[in-house]
Amino acid sequence: MKLAPIRGYYPRGGGQVIVHVNPLERGKCLKAVQMLSRGPILRVWGTAFVAGALPIKLAHVMAGRAREVIHRKLHGAGTSIGLDVSALKEPPGKAVATGSGINLFAETGEKCLLGANAVGSPKITPENVAEKAATDLIDHIDRGTCVDTHAQDQTVVLMALASGTSKILSGDLTLHTRSAIYITELLTKVKFKEYDGILECTGIGHASKA
Q1: What is the domain class of 41-143 according to CATH?
Q2: Is 206 a catalytic residue?
Q3: 164-184: per-residue pLDDT in tens?
Q4: Residues 60, 71, 150, 176: which is the catalytic one?
């Protein structure tokens, strides 16, 4: 059976994600990274989407409201960036049940990506859904970090396995990140340092055996 990407919605679920992975060559290690400067915001883009019984009009409302909030904040501060938030109606067979949401991203001059999202609900207006995602993205931008709070904890294991010392401008650590550090230090015996918003770790240089 050939799998295809399908979006699932709470509470039914049933979504499918297809992941393509390029493993390291045998004996190779992940390289340490230095991410200490984010650079200016170059562009913001995203997609507001609906599926099932919901009309495309709701996606257009979310996209429009997100553009308004982001434009007011970034362009109002004298910043000129590309801004493109589109609306999408998931075709039949590409989503399970009925649902909606919005994904937003910001790209920086140093090729950092920041993201935010929000999921629709019958109890929340599409305008408020879009405002939440847009406000979260602006908060990530205002933090001045190289990763957003959602990606922050995902860097921990990679830093621990890499060869060399990694430093990432991460900002205040989330509880998820602190939990990931605690478990990773137990398993690998590495030590993480946190200072001036920077997360640092000298990895174990784990080599691929595949």
Answers
A1: alpha beta
A2: no
A3: 999 999 999 999 999 999 999
A4: 176
CA distance 71 to 32: 36
Instruction: Write the CB contacts of 109 (distance below 8 Å, at least 6 apart in sequence).
Output: 38, 39, 40, 41, 42
Q: Where are the domains of the chain?
A: 41-143, 147-202
- Output b/e per residue, 6-21; b: 16+ Cβ within 10 A: bbbbeeeeeeeeeeee
What letters, b where the CB count within 10 A reaches 16 and e where it falls short, cover 118-145? bebeeeeebbebbbbbbbbbbebbebeb
Architecture of domain 147-202: 2-Layer Sandwich (3.30)
H, E, C per residue of 73-138: HHCCCCCCCEEEEEEEECCCCCECCCEEEEEEEEEECCCCEEEEEEECECCECHHHHHHHHHHHHH
Q: Which of 38, 153, 162, 50 is nearest to 98 (CA)?
A: 50
Residue range 115-138, pLDDT digits in tens: 999 999 999 999 999 999 999 999
